[in-house]
TrEMBL record:
Belongs to the DNA repair enzymes AP/ExoA family. This is Exodeoxyribonuclease III. Gene3D superfamilies: Endonuclease/exonuclease/phosphatase. It comes from Streptomyces paludis. The record marks N155 as: Transition state stabilizer. The gene is xth. Keywords: Hydrolase, Magnesium, Manganese, Metal-binding. GO terms for molecular function: double-stranded DNA 3'-5' DNA exonuclease activity; metal ion binding.
Length: 265
């Protein structure tokens, strides 16, 4: 069995003080992918920088206090990689991957964007560069007899079922037609599979992010923007996929919840 979890920690130093350390100690995951770490490795406490029993790859952003991704693996990776060959984005703390026997696991933090600003332009540039890399990654992995799973905060809700208030967000970044069409290309053209949606084809959600504003969490007015996107062969071996939603608002250590998939290898 291979259990993979992804979670945007919304600042790892803050999350460590709110319950992440305890969650990591109790998880059964073999690989944990983090996004929005927002810290250099030397700024992290020992129990999250290099916890006992884990091999950790940190990919901080050169811009202080922004982005950052990490991959925790119980098994030492055969190979690691930071970035995907982009002159603009490889030092931005947005992508890291590890190779384990038979499978490549990656942590992705796609830019969030904001309509009408440079942040949205940055998001589009990232998407334009990243899709060809996803295609190459899957092709090279297939040639080697390997599977792929790209985990992370994709910052796009693909379908109406992926966010509670979709009608009110049709002109919001994260649910724009061009963003949804791009994610559709990841599935339809690049040939990847949305593992959680494949396991829950007919339900709304399960949501993985809720605003801290108002009572979004209590009302489950969320977005599903955290995905495990895999090669078809690996998706076919998924036995379950679920969101680890906190029992209450007070018990949250991030505005995102961990999303986990279990594969039978």
């Amino acid at each position: 069995m291979l259990t993979v979890t992804t979670v945007n920690v919304n600042g790892l130093r803050a999350a460590a003080k709110k319950g992440f350390v305890e969650w990591l100690a109790g998880t059964s995951a073999d690989v944990v992918c983090l996004q929005e770490v927002r810290a250099e490795p030397h700024q992290l406490p020992d129990e999250v920088r290099a916890p006992e029993g884990w091999h950790v790859l940190h990919a901080p952003a050169t811009a202080k206090g922004r982005a950052g991704v990490s991959v925790y693996s119980r098994r030492e990776p055969d190979r690691t990689r930071i970035g995907f060959g982009s002159e603009e984005f490889d030092a931005s703390g947005r992508y890291a991957e590890i190779e384990l026997p038979g499978v490549t696991v990656a942590s992705l933090y796609l830019p969030s964007g904001e309509v009408g600003t440079e942040r949205q332009d940055e998001k589009i540039r990232f998407m334009d560069e990243f899709l060809p890399y996803l295609e190459r990654l899957r092709a090279s992995a297939a040639a080697d007899g390997r599977e792929v799973v790209v985990c992370g905060d994709w910052n796009i809700a693909h379908r109406e079922a992926d966010l509670k208030n979709w009608k009110a967000n049709r002109t919001s970044s994260g649910f724009l037609p061009e963003e949804r069409a791009w994610l559709g290309r990841v599935f339809d053209e690049a040939g990847y599979v949305d593992v959680v949606r494949a396991q829950h084809p007919d339900q709304d959600g399960p949501y993985s992010w809720w605003s801290y504003r108002g009572r979004a969490f209590d009302n489950d007015a969320g977005w599903r923007i955290d995905y495990l996107v895999s090669s078809p062969g690996l998706a076919d071996r998924a036995v379950k996929a679920y969101v680890e939603r906190a029992a209450s608002h007070a018990e949250r250590w991030s505005d995102h919840a961990p999303v986990t998939a279990v594969f039978e290898l």
